[in-house]
Structures
1.
Amino acid sequence: MSKGLAKIVLDYSHNNKLTLEATSYSDFIQFLFTSGFKIGKIQAGFDSLEKLEKYNLVLLSSPRNNKISKTEIEVLEKYVKNGGSLFIISSGGGDYKNRTNLNELTQKFKFEFVDDEVNDSMNYVNLQKRPLFSKFKPHIITEHVNKIVLSSSCSIKIHEYIEEVDDINTEVILKSDLNAWHSLYNGKEWIDEDIPKSPLIVAVKYFKGRIVGFGSISLFSSLSREYGFYAYDNDVLIGNILKWLIEKDTSERKIVTFSIDRELYDWGDKTVAKDNWDNMSDLFNIGINHFKKNYKNIMNELQIKRVKKKEAYEKAQAKKQKTEEIDIKKEKEKEKKILDLIPKRSKTDLLDIMKDLEDITGEKYEYLTDLDGKSEKKEKNEKKKK
């Protein structure tokens, strides 16, 4: 693979729709140049592995009335095995309508384009042949993609593996919705039938290389903001695909060991199984990457929440303290009222009681208490003088 700026080569040898000169796809071509890619052309066919290995990515875009030779298919397969990437795009009607043989190539990677055109009776943009999608498999390719429209697209068939193969891994990135149907050429005629949950976009890892395939060349179109390159998040999807296909050589992962909360681990484990993630590392890497990109905003929000929480706590504590002070005051007033209800003895009553005790016991008692309150008055007067 070439080093430095990423190089993309377009196929000019099989009457591909997407070329540098095609005004119908000028938005996409402009995107390639402004993104810093170097663009090349293959005009004499895929006859040399050495020729292809100058490029990071080969783009095949719906060839018409032209077929790829067996030798070219072998060269392309070797190119991918050695670490190259293929971006393969078909269009409505597949190989039958385009009179080509892309499937002879894609079968090497365990998928093929169906001879059909996908429609949706519920979610679409003006025409049912322009289905609108908002549910994607979590993947680097679908990062920040909320909605896309695939106009005049064919579906994809995934080949079943006869046995597990470590050197190939196929992921279905997008499937049709429950209300999807297609017009299919069955070898004799076109028929209509339902196709819920049929594959529409696939991402494949094949030995050292990668492949992405889907059946809508209209996704690159400059003719309409309703379904073309700048419709919804179509451009984001294409940008992510190019990134995933090209940056594999520069992306590095470091294995680290760290502790994780049990509750978070259980959530991650369930999410990986439920949403068909490859593994928990991919889930957490995307999560951490999102945190990295939004770090300042997230931390500011957390700080605001902390301040609000602190203010609410201090307010609650102040209210609690005030309530306790009121309760204490009420309790003292209550005690005072109870004490006021106790009858007070006069001096005469006390003298009579003491006299009765002396008569009973025969002893003389000394009065330690100032029954006239003179000592108390004297003490108060002394305080006033001071």
2.
Amino acid sequence: MASSVFDRETLLDLSVNIIPLGIILFFIAVFVALPGFEYDPFITTIQMSLLVIPFIGLAVLTYVSGKAITKAEQELEEQ
């Protein structure tokens, strides 16, 4: 069986960041599917940027922290 990048305990630690990622994705989908106002490219770009940029940042932060947690666990097991 192929080993996954993160084990179960690491995923539980990262769920603190995974849940907000899901919430942000929900709001992106809602704002794309059900626009509240008439389409204005400038306003829509700002609105989507305020959701997409934090989503990308949080996704990268979650991945990097997961790798750091996994590395720290491996170092503790070696000692």
